[in-house]
Design a protein that fits this description.
The protein is globular. Helix 2 (15-34) runs antiparallel to helix 3 (44-57) and helix 4 (66-73) packs across helix 6. The protein has helices at 2-9, 15-34, 44-57, 66-73, 82-85, 89-96, and strands at residues 101-108, 112-121, 125-134, 142-149, 158-166, 173-182, 191-198, 206-214, 224-234, 237-246, 251-257, 263-268, 272-275, 280-281, 290-292, 298-303, 314-325, 330-334, 339-342, 349-355, 358-364, 377-378, 384-385, 389-394, 399-405, 415-418, 425-433. The strands form seven sheets. The protein has a five-stranded antiparallel sheet. Strands 9-10-11-16-15 form a five-stranded antiparallel sheet, with no helix packed on it. The chain is built from six helices and 27 strands. With 435 residues, it is mainly beta. Mean pLDDT is 82; it is low at 1-62.
């Protein structure tokens, strides 16, 4: 264990892998955009890409608690997965408290080998930990998505998000963590996890699948629910806090922004749960950060879980939200003249360039700003459009560079991009006792 701990504490990340992770994050986000009826991943339009960035940025300095290190030292195949959950105290505490089921089943094709290492559950969700080994003859295999099947081969409806970390010493090895949310309780019958692989990250065409059967044997757990029903005001904007649910995988905070607010609120910058000793459980970095439904104004924000920590008191705290005036929250461009026709008053967008179907634009962000401001966009007739793919990388002087491939469909200029993130903030001082 000592050798393993020394090894993971000083890993470096190749730049090309970082770029690849960012690209993967955006590709995943782009796929999520297409699943408009699914609420589970919608808030992750930018967060998935951010997760990919943070995952590899922070992997250079892995720190885990002694209790967690002791817990995972005896779990086969878990050393690589530690990187993916090092910033999630909730998952670490679940493992420390033996709420982790070892599977250890391997499947293989000509091009890739996969091991389903283990799972963690709550009432409606699974977190799946996997190891992926590409074959030297077929080094380009990208996990496209999963399917969950029953033993008759029928797909079980679910929403999912995942993150992959490549081994810096061996480009053929990767570890993957996936969260799968079912429409109801987690099935207790035998299921089949189908891994779906593509050889081109851009088109996502599935060329190989691997199926691994498994059955959930973890002891059922019941989430803790707290009705809050309080309204707070930050910079004149009303925020309704409905409830908080704490489970083994994550904490969900249900929030609604008042329809009469003058500002469009994109999300919280520092939402967290704090106990009576000052211990903090903050936002989930590697995974879904929020979800919403098109049929409801309520958004669920996800925090790390303190389910396995005994506490006397808990408080919900936040001080900073990303927000801007509603009439400013859009970017309008003309792809023929390559001009920005409208943007927020502080004019942080610059250098719009269009080559063929490829669009590039710069956004002056700020320290710690890694958000994708775009999602679905519209032509002048209101026709909804989605990019074929997207890319993002941060540059010098806080400049973020965004690129996207325009779709292969006819549209009329100008194009309107409703903003879903922007480096504009409101601040307050909110602390609500929930326990």
């Amino acid at each position: 264990m000592k050798k393993w701990k020394e090894e993971i504490e000083k890993r470096e990340v190749p730049a090309e892998r970082l770029d690849q992770a960012i690209q993967i994050g955006f590709e995943t986000a782009k796929r999520n955009r297409e699943n408009k009826k699914r609420g589970f991943l919608k808030r992750g339009l930018w967060s998935t890409a951010v997760a990919a960035i943070l995952m590899l940025v922070f992997v250079t300095s892995i720190r885990v608690s002694p209790a967690f290190a002791n817990a995972v030292s005896s779990i086969p195949g878990f050393s690589g997965i530690v990187e993916l959950i090092q910033d999630n105290k909730g998952i670490q505490m679940a493992i420390e408290n033996e709420h982790y089921q070892i599977i250890g089943t391997t499947g293989e094709t000509e091009g890739v080998k996969v091991t389903l290492e283990g799972i963690i559950t709550d009432e409606t969700s699974l977190i799946v930990f996997s190891k992926i080994e590409n074959n030297k003859k077929h080094p380009e295999r990208y996990l496209n998505r999963y399917r969950i099947l029953d033993t008759d081969g029928k797909e079980i409806p679910n929403d999912q998000s995942f993150g992959t970390s490549w081994n810096p010493k061996n480009d053929l090895l990767a570890t993957n963590t996936t969260e799968i949310k079912f429409k109801g309780p987690v099935p207790t019958e035998e299921m089949i996890l189908e891994y779906r692989f593509a050889d081109d990250i851009r088109d996502g065409q599935v060329i190989e699948t691997i199926q691994i059967p498994f059955k959930v044997e973890l002891k059922p757990v019941k989430r803790e629910q707290y009705a809050v029903n309080k309204t707070v005001v930050v910079d004149g904007q009303k925020i309704h806090i409905h409830s908080i649910t704490i489970g083994p995988i994550k904490t969900a905070v249900e929030v609604e922004y008042d329809a009469e607010n003058t500002k469009k609120i994109f999300g919280f910058e520092d939402l967290q749960i704090v106990d009576e000793k000052g211990e903090v459980w903050s936002a989930i970095k590697n995974g879904s950060s929020a979800s919403w439904s098109e049929d409801s104004p309520v958004i669920s924000y996800f925090l790390q879980s303190n389910y396995f920590r005994d506490t006397q008191h808990l408080y919900l705290q936040f001080n900073k939200l990303m927000a801007m005036d509603k009439d400013e929250a859009e970017l309008i461009i003309d792809t023929e003249t390559q001009k920005i026709l409208k943007q927020p008053r502080d004019e942080r967008f610059n250098n719009l360039k269009i080559t063929g179907s490829h669009l590039e634009i710069e956004l002056k962000g700020g320290k710690g700003y890694y958000h994708d401001p775009f999602s679905t966009f519209y032509d002048v007739e209101g026709k909804a459009l989605s990019p074929k793919s997207g890319s993002f990388y941060p540059g010098a002087d806080d400049i973020n560079y965004f690129g996207l491939e325009l779709p292969d469909v006819e549209f009329k200029n100008p194009l309107k991009f409703p903003l879903h993130a922007y480096p504009s903030y409101i601040k307050g001082d909110v602390k609500i006792k929930i326990k």
